[in-house]
């Protein structure tokens, strides 16, 4: 039986007496974009079955609103506002209402503890969930827009602008919904706030602005989805003012960045409690 001296460690390296062992090296920090893609795919697969029926509800709701408004609005600028507002309402229903409920329930059930243990940046969790929920709005928004154009006799030539309206308005509304869900002290309050936000998007986005009082118009300007509605509605004209369309989309982009930053801060705040 051989005796190994105490000063010898495995590997033949001599350890200095009284020296503290060197700490093990930590792995590299998870990068934002790979983490974001992983969270997005996970959220998309988990929410696919549960959210698709609700997407049908959002689409039928917007289509039903346009059919009701068809008896009141004949055409012109009011018809453009109704179609654009109904299309963006699908985004508001999913990105604002459902995301507020999701994060509210996640916080109340302790689900944030699971995400807090994962080696992913907080921004990846918020952006991944927001992107997954916003992705569900694409088919419903397109169907609503096409149906509305046919119903009111509007041109279909510039529907491609939805490729910019959906992600930008979706980012702004999803960030707002995530922040409401994470900051609400109770899941029931998060659900209430999400539904109130969707109702505001319905009343202030679908109804023509020309028929609203001045105070309501000011409240309409504070709603992030308003600028997505305005950008989409401008494209129905015979000669769209593309500079104003780009300006409205730029406002959506700025509000989207700010709302997602606030949602990330709210996630950090909720995760440490």
Element layout with pairings:
Layout: E1 8-9, E2 13-14, H1 32-70, H2 76-108, H3 112-117, H4 122-135, H5 137-152, H6 162-183, H7 187-206, H8 214-221, H9 225-234, H10 242-271
Antiparallel strand pairs: 1-2
Helix pairs in contact: 1-2, 1-4, 1-5, 2-4, 2-5, 2-6, 2-7, 2-9, 4-6, 4-10, 6-7, 6-9, 6-10, 9-10
Share of residues in helices: over 70%
Order of helices and strands: EEHHHHHHHHHH
| End-to-end separation | 56 Å
Shape: elongated
Report the average pLDDT across residues.
Answer: 83
| Uncertain residue ranges | 8-16, 23-27
Task: Tell me the radius of gyration.
Answer: 25 Å
Q: Largest sheet, if any?
A: 2 strands, antiparallel
Counting DSSP H or I runs of 4 or more residues, the number of helices is 10
- As a percent range, the share of strand residues is under 5%
Structural class, from secondary structure content? mainly alpha
Q: How many strands? A: 2
Give the neighbour order of strands across the main sheet: 1-2
Which descriptors apply to this entry?
single chain, 273 residues, two-stranded antiparallel ribbon, 10 helices, 1% strand
Task: Walk me through this protein's architecture.
By secondary structure, the protein is mainly alpha-helical. 73% of the residues lie in helices and 1% in strands. It has helices at residues 32-70, 76-108, 112-117, 122-135, 137-152, 162-183, 187-206, 214-221, 225-234, 242-271, and strands spanning 8-9, 13-14. It has a two-stranded antiparallel ribbon. The protein is elongated and about 55 Å long.
């Amino acid at each position: 039986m051989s005796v190994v001296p105490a000063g010898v460690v495995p590997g033949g390296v001599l350890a200095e007496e009284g020296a503290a062992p060197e700490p093990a090296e930590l792995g590299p920090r998870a990068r934002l974009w790979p983490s974001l893609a992983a969270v997005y795919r996970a959220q998309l697969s988990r929410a696919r079955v549960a959210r698709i029926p609700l997407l049908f509800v959002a689409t039928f709701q917007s289509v039903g609103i346009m059919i009701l408004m068809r008896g009141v609005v004949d055409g012109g600028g009011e018809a453009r506002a109704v179609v654009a507002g109904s299309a963006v309402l699908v985004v508001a229903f999913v990105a604002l209402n459902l995301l507020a409920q999701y994060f509210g329930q996640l916080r109340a059930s302790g689900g944030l503890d699971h995400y807090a243990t994962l080696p992913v940046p907080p921004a990846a969790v918020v952006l991944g969930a927001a992107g997954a929920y916003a992705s569900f709005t694409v088919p419903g928004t397109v169907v609503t827009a096409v149906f509305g154009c046919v119903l009111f006799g509007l041109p279909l030539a510039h529907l491609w602008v939805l490729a910019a309206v959906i992600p930008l308005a979706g980012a702004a509304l999803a960030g707002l919904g995530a922040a409401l869900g994470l900051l609400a002290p109770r899941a029931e309050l998060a659900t209430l706030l999400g539904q109130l936000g969707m109702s505001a998007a319905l009343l202030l986005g679908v109804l023509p602005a020309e028929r609203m009082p001045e105070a309501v118009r000011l409240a309409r300007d504070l709603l992030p989805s308003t600028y997505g509605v305005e950008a989409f509605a401008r494209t129905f004209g015979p000669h769209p003012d593309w500079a104003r369309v780009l300006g409205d989309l730029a406002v959506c982009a700025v509000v989207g960045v700010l709302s997602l930053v606030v949602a990330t801060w709210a996630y950090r705040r909720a995760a440490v409690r």
